[in-house]
TrEMBL record:
Keywords: Phosphoprotein
Domain of life, per lineage: Eukaryota
Cellular component GO terms held in the UniProt record: plasma membrane
Cross-referenced SUPFAM superfamilies: SH3-domain
Alphabetical list of Gene3D superfamilies matching this protein: SH3 Domains
Biological process annotations from GO: integrin-mediated signaling pathway; protein localization to plasma membrane; T cell receptor signaling pathway
Domain Helically-extended SH3: 16-85
Protein name from the UniProt record: PRAM protein
Entries under InterPro entries matching the protein: FYB1/2-like (IPR043443), hSH3 (IPR029294), SH3-like_dom_sf (IPR036028)
Species annotation: Sinosuthora webbiana
The UniProt record lists the keyword Zinc: no
Pfam families reported in the protein's UniProt record: hSH3 (PF14603)
C-alpha cells in the first residue's frame, strides 16, 4: 500500500468514527454475505448500499434489526440483519 492510500484510509476511518459516534479502534467481528435472493437497495444517509452476494465486514451488532458494516470500498453504514447470511 502506498503512503497516499494509507492516509486516505485513515481519513475515511476518522470520518466514520465521527459520523457514527464510534469510539475505540475499528475491529472486524466477522464477515457476512448479503442474501443473493434480496433486492438490491441504494444507500441512504447512514445505510450502506446492498448488492446481492456481497461480502461485508461486520463492525458492530447494534440491535436486533441492524448491523454496522463495511464494504469492499471501505464505506460504512447500517445493513438490515434480515438480509445477512453467515459465511
Amino acid at each position: 500500500m502506498t503512503l497516499k492510500a494509507c492516509k486516505k484510509e485513515e481519513k475515511m476511518d476518522r470520518e466514520f468514527q465521527k459520523k457514527f459516534k464510534f469510539e475505540g479502534s475499528i475491529n472486524v467481528l466477522t464477515r457476512m454475505m448479503v442474501d443473493p435472493a434480496t433486492t438490491e437497495k441504494r444507500g441512504g444517509a447512514k445505510n450502506l448500499p446492498l448488492r446481492r452476494g456481497e461480502i461485508l465486514d461486520v463492525i458492530q451488532f447494534t440491535n436486533q434489526e441492524q448491523i454496522l458494516c463495511r464494504n469492499s470500498q471501505r464505506r460504512y453504514g447500517y445493513v438490515p440483519q434480515a438480509v445477512m447470511l453467515p459465511l
